[in-house]
Design brief:
Elements: E1 2-8, H1 12-23, E2 28-31, E3 47-48, H2 59-75, E4 80-81, E5 85-89, H3 92-96, H4 98-107, E6 113-115, H5 117-123, E7 133-137, E8 140-142, H6 144-157, E9 161-163, E10 166-173, E11 179-186, E12 192-202, H7 208-214, E13 221-231, E14 239-242, E15 251-255, E16 258-262, E17 266-267, H8 278-291, E18 300-311, E19 325-329, E20 336-341, H9 347-362, H10 389-398, H11 407-426
Parallel strand pairs: 1-2, 1-12, 2-9, 5-14, 12-20
Antiparallel strand pairs: 3-8, 4-8, 5-7, 6-7, 10-11, 11-12, 13-16, 13-17, 13-18, 14-15, 15-16, 19-20
Helix pairs in contact: 1-6, 1-9, 6-11, 10-11
């Protein structure tokens, strides 16, 4: 079976690219070496950025985040919690940053409100009583794996095939250097298969350099590890940010019934080989407790890490590198497109830009539709063709029960499993 496009990588960039291309009527297959959201995207900190964090240091990324924050809340309301966010000044240095910060918010057209400190503490009793200034911004919380599965199932419903446990291990090239097919290791059967496509999209995140290297080209990705710590209880209603230039340990996210403190930024060599230390946990707890002192007394549930695929800039550290993204159309092989950088918040926009580039290559004039496309999951009553009756009965059993909302991730998991099993059957991999 030959495809118009093979998308490599099942993170936020990959699933939205597959959806965008499928909505334009193209024949698409998405290849994910593990499971959808099993890499960087499924290990983010839960913050759907308002853009405020980057208004001083990365204004282009700030504007993109601000717009995509609104878009994501509109197209995926079932996985977005509109908590709002506070930026809080703790020290004199933080307070001196306020004017520059609010000027940046105005330039980026991000709505904000100066909150009286006493009112802020009444709203958030666990805030440090010594807080010196508070700015409210439209930060939100996003439930990452549910969003990724919603987008992947949406792509499948629009005609894309979704294949998990399918690791690209090489490419077959023509005499003029164009990619004919991807060699794919089937993690289920253990053998190597080939997938033919007219265009290949490298959306492999921190592994993008490795994938590009298989085609004989270089992609300058700077893999940067960030550690997050999960605490037992939800200590705030809102996202709490430190009012300073982006630094390590300055975001506390209320994620469901828990709290997540992040993050660090350390450049690493191998995104498959990361280590979380006790020092990482202690550092993040110490930094977070300056904003919310109760964090120092909270039981730590666990820590986890994500590897960001940042754009490599000579001399830049992981914290200094831009959070913007770059779409690279390679000269040779001319049917390979890669993406570097970006954030979870801008994943839909990345997919749109990648799909625009691919559409040019294939002579397709249809515009992107994902900006106004409501993702599957907002209404689980939508029928999926040929869905197993047992799966349907499980999904329906959540409706009207005590766990109707909690059943969303279970329902999406079952539907995605069905979609990937059906995709495998359609290409003869079952």
């Amino acid at each position: 079976m030959e495809f118009d496009v093979a998308v490599i990588g099942g993170g936020v960039n990959g699933v939205f690219t597959a959806l965008d291309l499928a909505l334009r009527g193209l024949k698409v297959i998405l290849l994910e070496r593990g499971v959808i959201g099993g890499g960087t995207s499924g290990r983010m900190h839960g913050l759907l950025h308002s853009g405020a964090r980057y208004v001083v240091t990365d204004p282009k990324a700030a504007v993109e985040c601000a717009e995509e924050n609104r878009v994501m809340a509109r197209i995926a309301p079932h996985v977005v919690d509109d908590t709002g966010g506070y930026f809080v000044a703790i020290t004199k240095d933080d307070l001196e940053f306020e004017d520059e910060f609010t000027s940046g918010l105005r330039r980026a057209n991000i709505n904000y409100r100066v909150v009286d400190v006493r009112d802020a503490i009444r709203e958030e009793p666990n805030l440090n009583p010594e807080v010196k200034a508070v700015i409210e911004v439209p930060d939100k919380v996003v439930y990452a794996r549910e969003l990724l599965m919603s987008a992947a199932v949406s792509a499948y419903m629009e005609g894309a095939l979704i294949v998990q446990n399918a690791e690209v291990i090489g490419f077959d090239l023509s005499n003029d250097g164009e990619i004919i097919s991807a060699r794919v290791k089937d993690g289920v059967k253990g053998d190597v298969r080939r997938v033919n496509a007219r265009v290949f999209v490298n959306a492999a995140g921190p592994w993008a350099g490795r994938v590009a290297g298989m085609a004989g080209v270089n992609v300058d990705v700077m893999p940067t590890m960030g550690v997050m710590v999960v605490y037992r209880h939800r200590l705030t209603r809102r996202v709490i940010n430190r009012m300073r230039s982006p630094s390590d340990g300055d975001i506390l996210v209320p994620y469901g019934s828990m709290s997540i403190m992040g993050t660090t930024a350390v450049i690493i060599e191998d995104p498959d080989n990361i280590t979380i230390t006790k020092d990482d946990i202690e550092f993040l707890t110490s930094e977070g407790s300056q904003m919310v002192p109760a964090l120092a007394r909270e039981p730590v549930v666990r820590a986890y890490a994500s590897v960001r695929p940042l754009i490599s800039i000579p001399g830049a550290t992981g914290r200094e590198a831009t959070r913007d993204f770059m779409v690279v159309r390679h000269d040779k092989p001319r049917n390979l497109v890669s993406v570097i950088g970006g954030k979870f918040t801008t994943g839909r926009l990345v997919g749109e830009r990648l799909a625009d580039e691919v559409s040019k290559m294939l002579g397709v004039n249809k515009p992107s539709r994902t900006r106004d496309y409501t993702l599957f999951g907002a209404d689980l009553s939508v029928d999926i063709k040929d869905l197993d009756p047992d799966v349907v009965s499980i999904i329906k059993s959540f409706r009207g029960s005590i766990d109707e909302e909690r059943g969303l991730i279970a329902s999406l998991s079952l539907i995605l499993q069905y979609a990937t099993r059906r995709s495998r059957a359609l290409i003869g991999w079952s």
